[in-house]
Amino acid sequence: MDFRSNIPLYLQVMDDIKKKIITGDLALGARLPSTRELAVQYQINPNTAVRVYNELESQGITFTRRGIGTFVTEDPSWKNRLRREMAETLIGDLVGQLKEAGFTKQELLDTISRFYDQPSA
Q1: How do residues 23-42 score in pLDDT, each as one tens digit?
Q2: I need a labelling partner for 39 at 20 to 30 A (CA). Which of 14, 46, 88, 113 fits?
């Protein structure tokens, strides 16, 4: 994973895990790697891996079974919530930047429509 220097590592790892849940790479109820395995996988400090799991659990995205491990929530409404949050964040950032660049609402909508209608790579 290529980390961006302007965003804390733990947030970037959390976002990657959330993306994996949204795309189905991580199924609801799936067991996550141990904190040590996560640290190795993302090449981060083990304390950062602990923070990732603590934050995900505090948000209700994961849960821990003592002595067994950390798991993705089994509540299907979380996947939809994560999708919505991701879309709002990405679109909000994009629209904000383009508005600052002087684009009108119609120009934004036209451009988004053109890109949306193109076949995926």
Answers
A1: 999 999 999 999 999 999 99
A2: 88
The encoded tokens of residue 91 equal 């679109």
The one-letter code for the residue type at 5 is S
Distance CA 80, CA 12 (A): 20
Residue corresponding to tokens 């970037």:
12
User: Hunting for tokens 């190795």 — which residue is that?
Assistant: 40
> Using an 8 Å Cβ cutoff, are 42 and 49 in contact?
yes
CB 10 within 8 A of CB 58: no
Predicted TM-score (pTM) above 0.90: no
Q: Which of 56, 62, 58, 57 is nearest to 29 (CA)?
A: 62
